[in-house]
Amino acid sequence: MTAIPASAGAFPAARRFGAVLPLLRGLLALAAVLVAVELIILAFGIRPYVLPRPSMVLEAILRTPAAYRDAILRTGTEVLLGFGAGALFGVWIGVAFSRLRFLRETVFPIFIVSQTIPVIAFGALVVMWFGNTILAKAVIVFYLTFFPVTVNTLLGMRTVDQKQVQLMQSFGASDAVIMRKLRFPTALPHIFVALRIASALGLSGAVVGEWFGDTTGLGVLLLQGMYAENMVAIWAAILCAAALGIAFFSAIGWAEKRIVFWGGETA
Amino acid sequence: MMTRPQTDFTAAEAAMTEPAEPILDLRNLSKTFGEVQAIKGVDLKVQPGEFVTVVGPSGCGKSTLFNIVSGLEEPDSGSVLRFEGRSVMARDLLGNVSFMPQRDLLLAWRNVIDNAILPLEIEGANRAEARKEAERMLPEFGLAGFAKQYPHELSGGMRQRVALMRTFMFKRDLMLLDEPFGALDALTRTMMQRWLLDVWQKHRRTVLFITHDVDEAIFLGDRVLVMTARPGAIKLERKVDLPRPRNADLVTSPEFIALKRDLLDAIEEESMKTFGPSSH
Predict the structure, then answer these.
(1) What's the CATH number of domain A60-259, 3.90.180.10, 1.20.120.1730, 1.10.3720.10, 3.40.47.10?
(2) Within an 8 Å CB–CB cutoff, is residue A175 touching chain B?
(3) Where exactly are the structural domains of chain B?
(4) Is residue B105 scored above 60 in pLDDT?
């Protein structure tokens, strides 16, 4: 599937700066919340093993930055692999479903049933099949990712304006051309909604996947913190997971702004 | 399949085919959707280069007529559809008639130029050349300097001009325009009508133009057809013997007003069939 033609290239610099502004504002808000939490903990004398101060958590991360960096890289790679494959497969199968009614009526129900099985139930199985590898976690992430993407691709294709289809037909366009030049771009805003949901799901999948056995990763850090009853370490892992999640989410948001620049609905 | 129609009709060719063979010839054209008969026994001949306007009460099957002629729908059996001297199925017309629907239907992710070249792209033309050609046409369509704008950045009138430009870039001898100015305010509409005549006189395509505005029908057309209430058929046909180029003050001339009265009477009679009996 080709991307949107040369349209995303010409952005005024002002708008590019405008995209950075909300990010700065978000960081500022986050800092404010952390400071507030810090002050509340100090004011009420909350014990560190109930809720450690944010400064203690940050300090813990800064004391052994390599461990956290490796964990973020490891979990991030798992998510990237699974998410990338899941997104591609989801779009591809969504397009196939929208084109082939037979497939939609036979295979799609199986997909829906497959999603009712909790991923945890699969976790043990996946580890048996793929071992304690990065691939095992990527498969779990993939499993969580492709479904929302498939559903939204299918849904997005259905929102296409029938009059636009007829216009393309009157120009002599084939079904394949209509798919590429009309249906797929129409579905893109819906696909991006699914990608955002899928990125959050995928991250939880990767973290949970690591609980089935691994030596690095954010899930592993969480488990270690729990076994050691180290509240600061747990919060440090949570903070890193949050940072990773936000990074994925904003990366998708950034791509969405550039690719679906027209804002979705036909104005 | 038909060969691609020639863009230019040379004088010699025109002389040879005298008396000109109609580019479009509909005989006894009918279309039924389930229980509802949308059009019934439409007979219509359109000569090359002619500007024919069609008016009628709402719901009279005008759009059905256009959908058939643009190839999107097959008429009922027994209908005869002839295009450029050959008997054809409606679907043979897909890709051979340039069709402009009521709404502009621009693609939101394409700028003005890329929307305009859409039909050329579908034909497999070289994109760079198509863009160059479109660039050259922009001023004529009042879009100079707007090449890189996206549809959401344009006014309704401009969007409609982009849609018209797209229709013109799809170089087919027969153009179908379905109420292209219906959604525009009165002032913009008048400007667009005059502008359309200018462009038409330059390009000399055959135009079949649907409208519900009688003034518009007379102002633009060589011939005005009035359709009956559903099931739609041709009720009245009037030649418009007004000189071209036509100016805005034409609409107040006695000939114009006389013609308008005749046409309005016919439309009124048809509208009464739809709304009449129960409203008294």
Answers:
(1) 1.10.3720.10
(2) no
(3) 107-171
(4) yes
